[in-house]
Design goal:
This protein is an alpha+beta fold. The chain is built from 8 helices and 16 strands.
């Protein structure tokens, strides 16, 4: 198995119980969306399109039907994330998830790889050499009340300006532990971004975007907990209806999010194969883009 310039190349002999692996192509997006919908995942077709446009992956196919997916995203020269790993119920127990992961990991052999594991998937990833390094909490719901937070003296919230982009990408790299230039460029150009100025200098930001059945907030980069809450609160004020935020459990945001009517609805373990990147609240990162992309 090798990596081409545009996709993961899977040997045609890679098959288990008559299900074969092949590269994920744009034409597979409707089937992947149908598969995730069958399992109750909230992703829209547009969410799948966004994910694939920034990454690459494999599908498990039987008799022309897509029954498994797994995607990866490269960040900088040394890092990658894996997500949207799905196996249809009729293929579970046949090592399809393992085969898809091996195909991705073969192409990522020189990179440190991060993913968010559910309880059900954690054993598979541990067998593939991943180690748990932290927890993510998924908070979602319809806001019970709009959050009202007073800005600290010297703080100001404002929209994104073109001159902010370079510094915000560097800020995100510190919080995420990896450089995500293309991803941040796309988010800044296509979604709403709130910027925090502190005493005249850019100090944080949060992105509000359409996702699933409503809006998602993330990534969020901020110098402290109060600043993270201020940015999330402003995004919530601009959102309509359902809101989701995936935050680092160590950040202390959970009680406040629950007070807004955004209870914990799930989460997962942050798992890494290779060197563990410095990331999270201690480095200014408070919320993910998605659990899949990181």
């Amino acid at each position: 198995m090798k990596l081409s310039s545009t996709a993961i190349a899977v040997e045609p002999t890679a098959a288990t119980a008559d299900a074969a692996l092949r590269p994920f192509e744009p034409g597979d997006l409707p089937s992947a969306h149908a598969l995730s919908s069958t399992l109750g995942w909230p992703h829209r077709l547009e969410d799948w399109q966004f994910a694939l446009s920034l990454g690459q992956g494999v599908v498990a196919e039987r008799n022309g039907k897509v029954l498994g997916t797994a995607l990866s995203w490269h960040f900088g020269a040394n890092h990658a994330t894996i997500g949207l790993v799905i196996v249809a119920p009729e293929l579970q127990g046949q090592r399809i998830g393992n085969r898809m992961m091996e195909a991705l990991l073969d192409a990522l052999a020189t990179r440190d790889v991060l993913l968010i594991a559910t309880a059900a998937g954690r054993g598979l990833y541990e067998r593939l050499g991943f180690v748990a390094t932290g927890e993510i909490d998924q908070h979602q719901g319809v806001l019970a009340a709009l959050p009202a937070l007073a800005e600290r003296a010297g703080d100001r919230l404002r929209p994104l300006a073109a001159a902010d982009v370079e510094s915000l990408i560097a800020m995100d790299a510190r919080g995420a532990g990896m450089a995500r230039v293309e991803l941040l460029g796309r988010l800044f150009s296509e979604e709403k971004t709130v910027v925090l100025e502190r005493r005249g200098h850019v100090a944080g930001f949060a992105v509000l975007r359409r996702h699933g059945g409503g809006h998602a907030v993330g990534p969020v980069a901020a110098p402290d907990l109060d600043a993270a809450r201020l940015l999330i609160a402003e995004c919530c004020r601009q959102a309509e209806g359902f809101v989701r935020v995936d935050v680092y459990a160590s950040g202390g945001l959970a009680p406040w999010l629950e007070s807004l009517g955004l209870p914990r609805a799930g989460g997962g373990s942050v798992m890494v194969r290779g060197r563990v990147p410095e990331r999270g609240p201690a480095h200014g990162g408070w919320a993910l883009v998605t659990q899949a992309i990181g």
